[in-house]
Amino acid sequence: MLKWSDAKTIQAELEKRWQSGRILQHVLAQDDLFPLKISLKRPQNSEINTNFSEIFAWIKSLKEKSKQNLGHGYELVEKEIHHRQSGRNVIPTHVVIPTVQDALRLLKKEREAKWFGELTKMIMTEWPILSEWVFEHPIKVLEIGEEWNQIVAVLKWFSGHHRSGLYLRQLDISGIDTKFIEQRKSLFTKLLDIVLPEQAIDKNNTIFELRYGLQMKPIRIRFRLLDPMLLAQGVSDMEIPLSQFAAFSPAVDRVFITENEINGLAFPPVSKSLVVFRLGYGLDVLKFIPWLRDKDVYYWGDIDTHGFAMLNQIRHFLPQTKSLLMNETVLLDHKKLWSDEDKPVVGELTKLTGEEKQLFVSLQDDKWGKGVRLEQERIAFNYLVRDLDGLSVL
């Protein structure tokens, strides 16, 4: 099959510019995108004699779907070439899309472009400060579509109620179920950071409620005291609000962190130690516990790319953290218990030790198979006891 540019190729090139938002940006800014020139992959001089009939059909097909023939779409730009055997020939080298209207008609996106224009007019009338964001994210504007009326209503409420101290479910916004906000926190974070004054935003906080002065359900920390000498009236297993945990400051030298609940409940006795568990990706809350900075901290996670990402995360605010049972030996010793990691972490982690980084990269590169994963709860309990042997197990 001869791989020369055809009408579908031209449309595909335009589609790329549509998906990138570039065409809609032109709709807003009327910049110099159009007339748009697109090079054609065309026959070489050496092919003219051997493929003359195919070349003739190719040119005919391009002309049939051109603006010269249909009255809209692309215009052909041709060049005369000279061949020693076939003489003079005219070959299309480029197409030119004269106007954005021609592009939209080729893409069958005229209705979407009109809808985009109506949406941007509404958004910028209400919030002109969002003009730059709209220009940078035109496809997102279209995807949001009819929800913009609700989004604008939410932005108005926050603009008129700086740091209200209310729970999210208490917000009284006509026609808005507060789940609408909960499900779109990422989008609202971007928009509120633009429309609200600086004093209404706590930019040091990534938690939505705290960032914009809302009340939130208290974060609770689940932990067990591992030293019988530290128990409060015989109580070892507790769950208390984050603020109380921050003020708790128990007489421990070591803190173990593990996600799995059973791991936390079954963790063996260790002198002057406690184990925190069931935090998941909520590890960031530990940055608000000042007394942790002076403790020996151990993190026990899954041996997969996400486990190492969480270890990397905690080291940003507790750099002294050591990994527990997260090494190649443990992984290979439990080969029969491996499972699959669906969406491995991509990119580099900067807070890993050399040995940890080597294992992380090996998992990324599928050294032992695609998406190899060893969940922490599948590790034999005697491995934990063995690794704790030097930590004064009682």
Automatic annotation (TrEMBL):
Residues 213-386 form the Wadjet protein JetD C-terminal domain. Pfam families: DUF3322, JetD_C. Residues 9-193 form the DUF3322 domain. It comes from the Bacteria. This is Wadjet protein JetD C-terminal domain-containing protein. The lineage of its organism: Bacteria, Bacillati, Bacillota, Negativicutes, Selenomonadales.
